[in-house]
UniProtKB/TrEMBL annotation:
<protein>
    <recommendedName>
        <fullName>Retrotransposon gag domain-containing protein</fullName>
    </recommendedName>
</protein>
<dbReference type="InterPro" id="IPR005162">
    <property type="entry name" value="Retrotrans_gag_dom"/>
</dbReference>
<dbReference type="InterPro" id="IPR032567">
    <property type="entry name" value="RTL1-rel"/>
</dbReference>
<dbReference type="Pfam" id="PF03732">
    <property type="entry name" value="Retrotrans_gag"/>
</dbReference>
<feature type="domain" description="Retrotransposon gag">
    <location>
        <begin position="49"/>
        <end position="147"/>
    </location>
</feature>
Length: 260
């Protein structure tokens, strides 16, 4: 059963920075103490788990260790390089936890790139280590510029701003980066929501009177002369002419449509 409630796994360590190395070891040991087969922090199991969190230079360093563990698993006669967590921990500290903060800061700047981050974010991280390096402002300015993205560098070429100092370069690069991101957002297509098409369907069906089953069927196509004369007398329609009973002198043509 894992007892790590509220304790997250340690972040991967890339082999850069002694402070990050110390944080990784501390976080790993706290997390491992909540895992049944790791909690004692003895034997080789914690070693196998720890190297799975390594990447970059740290992963390269750990590759021979992983190969040794694999060989030992296949053949017990192959001795483990680090049979215990304490042995691995000592080797890790010796390799990644330097006692020289200047060297550590220089290594951090060497590995730091803007990448997909904003210039503001890149600059904030850069400043965390720049003061410890002992580099001059000109050197720091050049190192900051070298690791900017190409799109920011291309825009800086056309800028009239004075970027000879680190502070000025950061300010202008941040302005350019913000402008580029704004233009990208403006060019994104506006997504419209198309309303769904609803077909009208009447709630009530047309009323149709029930036919009397006892009613007599009438053939509308068969009309006798007697029936025709009776209709003419009642309606006043004779050969397409209407004769008014009020005024026998007035007549006018009528187009009549009779539906039965």
């Amino acid at each position: 059963m894992n007892n790590n409630k509220g304790v997250g796994k340690p972040h991967n360590y890339n082999g850069v920075g002694s402070e990050d190395a110390r944080r990784f070891l501390a976080a790993f040991e706290v997390w491992a103490q909540g895992v049944p087969n790791l909690r004692s922090l003895t034997g080789n199991e914690p070693v196998k788990s720890a190297i799975s969190f390594l990447e970059g230079d740290a992963a390269i360093w750990a590759t021979p260790i992983a190969e040794n563990i694999s060989a030992h698993t296949s053949n017990n006669n192959v001795p483990l390089t680090y049979p215990n967590w304490a042995d691995f921990r000592a080797a890790f500290v010796a390799r990644f936890e330097t006692a020289d903060p200047v060297t550590d800061a220089k290594s951090m700047l060497k590995a730091l790139y803007q990448g997909r981050n904003s210039v503001a974010s890149y600059a904030a991280t850069f400043k965390q280590y720049s003061d410890r390096t002992g580099y001059s402002d000109v050197d720091l300015r050049d190192k900051f510029y070298d690791h900017l993205t190409d799109r920011v560098k291309d825009s800086l070429v056309h800028s009239n701003a004075n970027t000879s100092s680190l502070a000025n370069l950061i300010a202008e690069a941040t302005r350019i980066d913000n402008r580029i991101n704004e233009r990208v957002r403006q060019k994104m297509p506006f997504k419209t929501v198309t309303p769904a098409t609803h077909h009208f369907q009447p709630i009530n069906t047309p009323f149709v009177a029930h036919r009397d089953p006892n009613a007599m069927d009438v053939d509308a196509t068969h009309v006798t002369d007697a029936d025709r004369r009776t209709t003419e007398r009642r309606t006043g329609i004779t050969n397409g002419m209407f004769v008014s009973t009020a005024d026998l002198q007035a007549t006018w043509p009528v187009s009549a449509v009779v539906s039965i």
